[in-house]
Amino acid sequence: MIVELNNITKIYTDAEVPAVKDVSFGVQDGEILTLLGPSGCGKTTLLRVIAGLERPDSGEVIMQGKRMASNNCWVPPEDRGVGMVFQDYALFPHLSVRDNISFGLKNKNKAKNAEKVQEMIELVGLENHADKNPADLSGGQQQRVALARALVTDPILVLLDEPFSNLDMNLREKMRREVVRILRKSETPAVFVTHDQEEALSISDKIVVMNNGQLEQKGTPREIYESPIACFVATFVGQSNILHGVLGPKGENIETDLGTFTYNYQHNKQPGEDVIISIRPDGFELVEDGPIQGTIKEIAYKGGVVDLIIELTNKEFYQDLLVHIHPKYRVEVGDKVSFKLLPHFLTMIGECKPAI
């Protein structure tokens, strides 16, 4: 384990509640982990705790088996061997790309330093821009300089705080792939901070979902999306239909007003007990004479997918249903449609609480 956070709590002066409360997770060698959550959820505080820019009020930070922070231990940022890429890149405007990258090198051997800097310039693909100043570079190029500067010292970990937020949508997507490629090639583990769910799902090996300073769920992108264990995760990471139901007599299905669905994971629930379930809008398939029937109330075309709001024919079901369909289907408001639920797209979740 490269980094371990054990029961981290951080309370800022005059704050009514902790910014972070009793949070624990680890980062494996070569792993890209993303801290995902809304503004003010504590994700940037955790990043700063790892970097040594904030000292936790309780808990401990361990890096490569060495304690960096605890009740009786504190290692300053410069001695932690961590690289950081800030949201605004924090490049020196009067220095060239080459000099920005070399700024943090402590080795007095100039030849080795020059060799290392050139290696980083080639890694991030800026060979033709090495002597330019930041003002002469695009936003994506500046970001690559900031990443190269973080990597040139061979850190044990790189921390990236909302690194794509200043880029337009097309460049953001390109830079996600580029930064992940660079991190993979350098074999450097990384922790990202973002509030963008799509970004987290696309770049991460593991995701830690934060809300109100607490850890809601941690897991792979597929686990987070397909098997949310909390109402907040189900509704914040993508969209979801939240339904109430009852666990069937043998605990092998869930009975809802929408229908009865097979479900083999009881989560310590007993037959006959009330449960809350999440069904992703991707979990429905448009079919003729399907068991779920209704009328289209709203349509939102989004390019690769079409969002439908369905008013169900079943009058006992009092909420509308959000369904995704492929754009090959041509439908209109008022059309009557029917669906079936695909296997494994239903999951049992915990009690629903306010998102913020």
TrEMBL record:
Report one GO cellular component: membrane
Specify whether Membrane is a keyword of the entry.
yes
- Keyword terms, alphabetized: ATP-binding, Cell membrane, Ion transport, Iron, Iron transport, Membrane, Nucleotide-binding, Transport
Q: Tell me its EC number(s), please.
A: 7.6.2.9
Question: Which residue numbers delimit the ABC transporter domain?
Answer: 3-237
Which molecular-function annotation in GO is an example for this chain? Answer: ATP binding
Provide the protein name: ABC-type quaternary amine transporter
